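fwd from M.: "can u put these together and see what the complex looks like"

so here's what she sent:
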Amino acid sequence: MSESNVKPGTEKSGKEKYGEVAYYPGCALEGSGHAYNRSTKALGNALGLKIKEVENWNCCGAMEVKNIDPKIQTYLSSRVMSIAANKMNMDVVMAPCNGCYHNLKKAEYDLANDEKSAEVVDRLSKKAGHETYQAGQVETIHALDWVKETIGEDGLKERVKNSLKGIKIANYYGCMYTRPRHIFPEKDAGPGSESTSKPHFMDDLLDAAGAESVDFPLKTACCGGAHTLSDSDTSTRLVANILQTAEASGAEVIATECPTCHSGLEMHQIRAEKVLGIKTSVKIIYFTQLLGMAIGLKPKKVGLHENISDSFDFVKDKGLA
Amino acid sequence: MNPGPVRSVADIGLRLDQLIGKPPVMEDTAELLALGEEILEHWVAAKGKEPTQDQREGFRLLALHRQGADKDPSFNACRETCRELVYHYNLVTQQADHPEAGQRARMMAWVANHLYLFIAGKMETQQLGDFCCASKPLRERVDGEMPAQ
């Protein structure tokens, strides 16, 4: 991660920086993505990482608010960061959902670079009766950063009880984890940093747990997710191509790190068979579920039963249950 | 004057289906790249521009993508797909005797198909990808008011 504002000699290690974070689950993790919520908490707990849920958090503005008025979305995201910084005295907010992560990063960027956004946020914060968030008060990270920077590959290797050996995985990061690039200044920042064109943090972690990440060329490809209801056929065709490409690359599992991607892949896998006659059998499992099972957590503990697709037989065959 | 795209969008899709079904071999990579250029030509032409003959980083495909994304940041949703197409073309052609060359050609076909599906979808469904990757609002305020007074 970028340390450009840190005085030399005062840098904290990953575990010191991210060992205790403000946790922002966001709306999806309380609904369709509950398995991700459950598995993120269970994994963190098993790894000795502490989370404090952001008190009285609100929607990040998602896509709906951003469509109508991006500055209101900036305010909504800023309120979450303000609570973390000013009420909870936290330095880091961890958001496992790509949409939330993206929106908090976008708000951070806008507040630092757009005077009008800062004015709107200040006015609305005063009206709502809370302290105005100032750019730079917290650092927003993704769940991938959290595990990678605190435990890392070596730490995971030491903790693996049920190796993922023999499982071929296509890692699907979706679009909002890396785009647009300008809101992620810490990415593409040299050795060790995440890449926006070929992200690899999920590959690194799952490989450390014994899995074999395959060469998957559609890691950040569009799944038509935002149009999943308004134009389901377009989404189904794009998802079917992602699933077929994963299978063609030899993968048995697509690992996900976003609740919207995950539920989109699962739902359109079913729809692709019904509507397009395209049947795929690749399993869709959150990376937190895979890592959790690798370090010895039971499938139910990581919410495998909450996924739409049924992976129980698969994980049993692979010795993870 | 550039004659513009010759094959229809639907014909590009049919040809990609054929290539994926074969499955494709190393000799098909030039056609896969050309199919990627053709679908991009359709996108550029649909925006009322003449598809460029320029190259970026040695590839017309990348120049066409850049032209297609001009004033339309949502089109960057297929930026990495275009770069993967070029990457696979390079992999196959630069290491023709590699034991994975056939598999690489197959993966290139799936990538080309994704580019086709994205652009064909975007031409069918206005604003596909506009408000996720690009952080671009779908609707601009029209009443001139400041938000949430």
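replying to her w this: Chain A has 13 helices and eight strands.
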